[in-house]
């Protein structure tokens, strides 16, 4: 890095305190330059021959950081994500936050030579599904480790710091930066017109002050509105010279449909066409991307300066799109929100297809924090004087007050989502015994919650421990032999360990083992059709569902919710074909699951197999079966390490 690079004041302050051995919490807008602070800390650690951990919320971001840091610090970067382990003793180690939390529980001494941990996107602590992992990792941090926590704006940062000072040994400094280096200019498309600001949109009177909901739909009150045409928007962006453009959709299919709409357009000069063709050929050859409908369509789009990007694509195909986008040769990309998460892909313009999305348990308007996480990709530092943000507005779907709240409202507070899983409880019980209950008052949840909420969370932990006692995971003398396995298989503890105890896992052949574990990790999408099952799979389904039934009955008895994961057999035919050595591009005919999702769940299965193998209680024969199974399934498109080891 060029040390003469002019730092912003907040960056200087953060680095100053970090070098004075303070932990530092940085809250700043997307695109403000938070990553530069991390890089200076990493360089300082390298100079002092000290190790550093860099945690990221998703594997895609972990992989990108591994590539970035490997180029900057060749030979000194490693990655550990569950399905990938490369150079794990390197001074710079990239990890998903889950894997870091797990390692702190099982083997904290392996961090004695590491001075720092960098938590990227620390506001993920607020995530309903996974936030507990960040909180547990912070509580479990070794006393000598300092932390750099990077986040979009945190309104309750003082509350957050107050808690951190209670549980974290080193002194802590919070750095707040509200100003973006490149300001944002907001535009709106409504009634197929482009409005240059919110005031003009409001003045037009096209959007009602409130929207009243009626059963099943919004009450229609604008019957003669013109639909927003993509063509109108594209021409406006061209007129403004507003490319490159990131267009955010909240549906994979919508990304592809919109790409189809602009397929006939061309955004590249003749010279750029030649460059992008050469780059595309080079990357796809290196990554050995198999032929597929996605690849065939995407390659034609890319040669016109257009692309789409979502979790349904093969990881290698997503990486191809990312690499070409960073070259500046993709001018218009349709993508889901993961493209906004920490991945350094700035553009001149960001477009929102809609301002509502599915939040896992409900469908609602975008949170202000999420809006700015994505909008923050607009405006390239040192290139653009301002970034453009276009919101496409349908008055039937949003009212003016809700729109105003999203764009001009306050960022949402970070709230604890603490809910420790069985594996975390078992690992803590092994260390602390009955003193495990003393840990809860150290949590962020305890400091935020009302007395009745505190009682509820502590009660849930006590009920989980009672269940673990009844099922003989916890004995009077400590943990039982089967608890060793349960403590290693996060999220799937009870199904895996109960099947093992009954000898069921040992009874399965290698192919059936793969089908069973993939069915355990798989989560069907809403409305996904149930597949037709072979005799083999029907038998496995009947057998494992008996385990699920018994586990759920016990959990209901102890009032533990959510219940342990069910088995879903939507990928069973794809599992059999892949195990038998068929090429990857055959699998889409056997299920209705996107390529990227197949890879994701196969990789999750690989992670679970490795976790099972890490337990000393499994039989040699089961271990041999798992090793043989891994050699059959961890290949080609599924082999995450092969993709990462390939230099681009």
What form results from the Cα inertia axes? globular
The CATH superfamily of the largest domain appears as: P-loop containing nucleotide triphosphate hydrolases
**Strand residue percentage:** 5-15%
Number of helices: 26
- Rounded to an integer, what's the Rg over CA atoms? 25 Å
The largest sheet is: 8 strands, mixed
The rounded distance between the terminal residues' Cα atoms is 20 Å
Number of domains as seen in the coordinates: 4
What's the short story on this structure?
The chain folds into four domains: 9-176, Rossmann fold; 184-408, P-loop containing nucleotide triphosphate hydrolases (Rossmann fold, 3-Layer(aba) Sandwich), CATH 3.40.50.300; 418-479, no CATH class; 481-645, Sec63 N-terminal domain-like fold (Orthogonal Bundle). The chain is 45% helix and 13% strand.
If you had to describe this structure to a student in words, what would you say it looks like?
By secondary structure, this protein is α/β, with parallel strands linked by helices. The chain has four domains: 9-176, Rossmann fold, CATH 3.40.50.300; 184-408, 3-Layer(aba) Sandwich (Rossmann fold), CATH 3.40.50; 418-479, no CATH class; 481-645, Sec63 N-terminal domain-like fold. 45% of the residues lie in helices and 13% in strands. It is built from 26 helices and 21 strands. The strands form five sheets. It has an eight-stranded mixed sheet, sandwiched between helices. Strands 10-9-19-16-13-15-14 form a seven-stranded mixed sheet, with helices on both faces. Helix 10 runs antiparallel to helix 12. The radius of gyration is 25 Å and the shape is globular.
């Amino acid at each position: 890095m060029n040390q003469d690079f002019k730092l912003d004041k907040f960056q200087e302050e953060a680095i100053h305190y970090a070098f004075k051995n303070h932990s530092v919490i940085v809250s700043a807008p997307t695109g403000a330059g938070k990553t530069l602070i991390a890089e200076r800390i990493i360089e300082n650690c390298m100079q002092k021959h000290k190790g550093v951990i860099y945690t990221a919320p998703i594997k895609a971001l972990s992989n990108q950081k591994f590539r970035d840091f490997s180029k900057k610090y060749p030979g000194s970067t490693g990655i550990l994500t569950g399905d990938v382990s490369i150079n794990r003793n390197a001074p710079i180690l990239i990890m998903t936050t889950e894997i870091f939390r797990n390692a702190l529980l099982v083997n904290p001494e392996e961090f004695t030579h590491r001075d720092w941990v960098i938590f990227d996107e620390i506001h993920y602590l607020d995530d309903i599904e996974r936030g507990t992992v960040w909180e547990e990792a912070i509580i479990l941090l070794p006393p000598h480790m300092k932390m750099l926590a990077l986040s979009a704006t945190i309104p309750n940062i003082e509350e957050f710091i107050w808690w951190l000072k209670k549980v974290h040994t080193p002194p802590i400094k919070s750095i707040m930066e509200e100003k973006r280096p490149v300001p944002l200019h907001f535009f709106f498309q409504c009634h197929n017109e482009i409005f240059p600001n919110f005031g003009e949109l409001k003045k037009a009177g096209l959007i009602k002050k409130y929207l009243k909901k009626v059963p099943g739909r919004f009450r229609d009150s604008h019957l003669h509105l013109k639909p927003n045409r993509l063509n109108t928007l594209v021409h406006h962006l061209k007129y403004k010279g507003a490319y490159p453009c990131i267009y955010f959709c909240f549906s994979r299919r919508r990304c592809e449909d919109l790409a189809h709409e602009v397929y006939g357009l061309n955004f590249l000069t003749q010279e750029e066409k030649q460059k992008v063709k050469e780059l595309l050929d080079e990357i796809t050859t290196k990554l050995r991307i198999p032929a597929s409908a996605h690849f065939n369509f995407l390659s034609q789009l890319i040669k016109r300066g257009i692309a789409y990007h979502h979790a349904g694509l093969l990881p290698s195909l997503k990486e191809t799109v990312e690499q070409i986008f960073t070259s500046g040769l993709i001018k218009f990309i349709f993508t889901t929100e993961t493209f906004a998460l920490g991945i350094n892909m700035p553009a001149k313009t960001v477009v929102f297809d809609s301002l509502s999305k599915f939040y896992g348990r409900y469908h609602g308007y975008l949170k202000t924090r999420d809006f700015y996480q994505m909008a923050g990709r607009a405006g390239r530092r040192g290139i653009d004087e301002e970034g453009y943000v276009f919101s496409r507005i349908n008055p039937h779907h949003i009212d003016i007050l809700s729109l105003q709240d999203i764009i001009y409202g306050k960022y949402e507070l970070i709230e604890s989502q603490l809910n420790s899983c069985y594996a975390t409880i078992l690992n803590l019980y092994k260390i602390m015994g009955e003193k495990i209950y003393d840990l809860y008052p150290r949590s962020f949840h305890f400091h935020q919650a009302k007395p009745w909420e505190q009682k509820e969370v502590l009660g849930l932990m006590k009920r989980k421990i009672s269940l673990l006692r009844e099922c003989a995971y916890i004995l009077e003398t400590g943990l039982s032999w089967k608890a060793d396995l349960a403590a290693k298989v996060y999220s799937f503890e009870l199904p895996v360990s109960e099947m093992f105890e009954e000898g069921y896992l040992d009874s399965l052949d290698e192919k059936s083992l793969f089908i069973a574990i993939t069915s355990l990790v798989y989560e069907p999408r809403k409305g996904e059709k149930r597949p037709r099952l072979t005799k083999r799979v029907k038998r496995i389904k009947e057998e494992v569902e008996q385990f699920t039934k018994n586990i759920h009955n016990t959990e209901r008895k102890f009032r533990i919710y959510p219940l342990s994961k069910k088995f879903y057999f939507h990928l069973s035919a794809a599992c059999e074909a892949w195990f038998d050595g068929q090429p990857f591009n055959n699998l889409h005919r056997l299920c209705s699951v996107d390529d990227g999702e197949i890879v994701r769940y196969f990789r999750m299965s690989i992670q679970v197999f490795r976790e099972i193998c890490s337990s000393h209680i499994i039989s040699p024969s089961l271990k041999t079966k798992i090793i043989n199974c891994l050699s059959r399934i961890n290949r080609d498109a599924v082999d995450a390490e092969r993709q990462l080891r390939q230099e681009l």
